[in-house]
Design a protein that fits this description.
The structure holds two protein chains of two kinds. By secondary structure, chain A is mainly beta. Chain A contains three helices and ten strands. In chain A, strands 3, 4, 5, 6, 7, 8, 9 and 10 form an eight-stranded antiparallel sheet that branches. Classes of the chains: A mainly beta, B alpha+beta. Chains A and B meet through strand 6, strand 7 and strand 8 of A and helix 1 and helix 2 of B.
């Protein structure tokens, strides 16, 4: 697989995630792979398989927002990829933003998580209409307060 | 833009599958009912714009910015432990 950011990377076909609706704003890119930024990194790249130049920065939300877990359970109750069985196989990522030169202002979008059905390797970007969370949740803010 | 006038309870068809009903009018707010196939994505516009905006700016981040952000998190973490 060719990428602009990481050069040519090797991926297993079964690692490809299919997004029938794509990411919001990018409806035509329907296949992605998750690439770890580096070992033990909290951030990953959600790299398009069809567009070498397209990749989003994503993170595991539960590392930053522990109570997001109970919230995603709610999502699963209301939104479902296909069948009931998806509920036990879903994995969540959130889209991260890092303003250039101001990493302390990095944020995560908690109202548009990527929900992946691991077994089927299918995903959607869930749009949360009634959410207590922000689309710009600060990731570096909390520790600074100490 | 096509603009249609509707009364309470009246409907609009978009194609064969999508039906919009004017359910309630209260002051400056209206309630709409939308019937559409399960595969149709329906969003409140302002939320759609927020998520799309975050996607677009996230797609412009370079690997160097991510590395800087990670070292910042690591510094914060070790500082947190010391305190």
């Amino acid at each position: 697989l060719e990428t602009t950011r990481f050069g040519v990377i090797e991926i297993e076909a079964e690692k490809i995630i299919h997004m029938p609706s794509g990411m919001l704003g990018f409806p035509r890119r329907k296949r992605f792979v998750i690439v770890q930024h580096k070992e033990n990194s909290p951030f990953f790249w959600y790299q398009s398989v069809d567009d070498p130049g397209l990749a989003f920065v994503i993170a595991n939300p539960f590392l930053f927002v522990p109570d997001y877990k109970s919230y995603t359970r709610n999502i699963l109750r209301n939104v479902c990829l296909e069948e009931e069985e998806t509920k036990n196989q879903a994995e969540f990522y959130v889209v991260v933003n890092i303003p250039k030169g101001e990493p302390q202002k990095m944020t995560a979008n908690l109202i548009g998580p990527i929900m992946i059905n691991n077994k089927k390797r299918r995903a959607i970007q869930v749009v949360l209409h009634e959410s207590p969370y922000s689309h710009k949740f600060p990731l570096a803010g909390k520790t600074e307060e100490k | 833009m096509l603009i249609l006038t509707r009364k309470l309870g009246q409907k609009i068809n978009i194609g064969e599958d999508i039906v919009i009903t004017l359910v309630e009018i209260r002051g400056t707010q209206v309630k709409l009912g939308i019937e559409a196939p399960g595969s149709t994505n329906i969003y409140r516009r302002e939320i759609y714009e927020k998520i799309k905006g975050q996607n677009v700016s996230s797609s412009r981040i370079g690997p160097a910015d991510v590395s800087t952000a990670i070292s910042l998190l690591e510094t914060n973490q070790s500082r947190g432990k010391k305190n």
